Amino acid sequence: MRVAMIGTGYVGLVSGACFADFGHHVTCIDKDKDKVEMLRSGGIPIYEPGLDLLVQRNVREDRLGFDTDLTQAVREADAVFIGVGTPSRRGDGFADLSYVYAAAKEIAEVMEGYTVIVTKSTVPVGTGDKVEKIIRETRPDGDFAVVSNPEFLREGAAINDFKRPDRVVVGTEDERARNVMRELYRPLFLNETPILFTSRRTSELIKYAANAFLAMKITFINEMADLCESVDANVQEVARGVGLDNRIGGKFLHAGPGYGGSCFPKDTLALTRTAQEAGTPLRLIETTVEVNDRRKQDMARKIIKAMGDDVKDKTIAVLGLTFKPSTDDMRAAPSLDIIPALQAAGAKIRAYDPAGIVEAEKLLDNVEFTSGPYLCAEGADALVIITEWNEFRALDTTRLKDAMAGDVVVDLRNIYSPEDMRSRGFNYTSVGR
């Protein structure tokens, strides 16, 4: 089949490359000429393990191409995906749908014959209705269907998530559109992947509900961690004891500095705004957002307390800046709140991240960025682990101790054993233990 993918951001590029790897012919469209030229020449604008090889292979096999003009790709396509950004709108936190609506209008102006238009971007309930209205007003004679097909990709594991998903959700009541979507995802039938066909509005809500539930689960275990510290319990053992219950499961029960990234912060906020407008406020999710925002500031205070409540003119080495490992994504990363709070208290910050420094340099001021963990720790009064990159899981603690001027280690991801770290001479603090 022929696919046009509007947008070469995280969702569009990964989805387009994976569809091409399924054997479909895909053209990814982006108005950014520099980005398109980079992709044509084999470069990748985002960090995602394995994506560079996937793109290069499918370009070489002539199944994947890139363009700045959507006209030909849309006219030839069996399905046109909208995979543009939906950031939080300034002022009210609602999803900014301007890019989605602009894409819909441009598609309508050039489409020919029956066309399935698929919203892959994360959009609030009812967006598909507005997209359909825009297309109908632009092309009253158009033969088309608007479908919701939300993505469930984890950054750092996106290719595997696309090719071996827990489920595929498709929102449409148009039988022709269902047949197109079945054919697009036919390779997944071999893996017996559950494909849920539902109404468009239900499909749109499933995406938000899933992310809100996971954000709530993270926030729950973070609050349990605070309780564990107060009553001398171990949050990791609590999480394991709770997670062994099959009704709950152990995923997303890892205490830390709060959730961040491109999805959870904006999606929880957008969902609460949608619910408020509908007159059915979601108090649990509203509280989740509030608690998570506060937690990042709490982590800064935790670090200051571990340093004797005085960080003025002290050097703090920070390991990990991105919101999670295996990505260069800095959106809503806890480091963006923790580091400025430490600086406001007078601390000097030195930092290292395996993939996020280029992005971090745009967002953080007065930070000395280094090229490795031990160089980062050199002469530091304290070391803080914010992101649990694999290379931080087995640091040479003897070398680390020799490099540091002080002995304070604050492990916000509970990577190390408190007993082991203290036996090695560190003044060690973790979360909920």
**Strand runs, count:** 14
Taken as a percent bin, the fraction of beta residues is: 5-15%
Give, in spatial order, the strands making up the sheet with the most strands: 3-2-1-4-5-6
Q: Provide the CATH top-level class of the largest domain.
A: Alpha Beta
Named CATH architecture of the largest domain: 3-Layer(aba) Sandwich
Taking pLDDT < 50 over at least 5 consecutive residues as the criterion, the unreliable ranges are: none
Shape estimate: globular
Task: Summarize the amount of helix as a percent range.
Answer: 40-55%
Taken together, the total number of domains comes to 3
* Main structural class: alpha/beta
| Rg calculated over all Cα atoms | 23 Å
| CATH fold naming of the largest domain | Rossmann fold
Largest sheet: 6 strands, parallel
The end-to-end span amounts to 53 Å
Task: Provide the residue-averaged pLDDT.
Answer: 96
The total count of helices amounts to 18
The CATH superfamily of the largest domain is identified as NAD(P)-binding Rossmann-like Domain
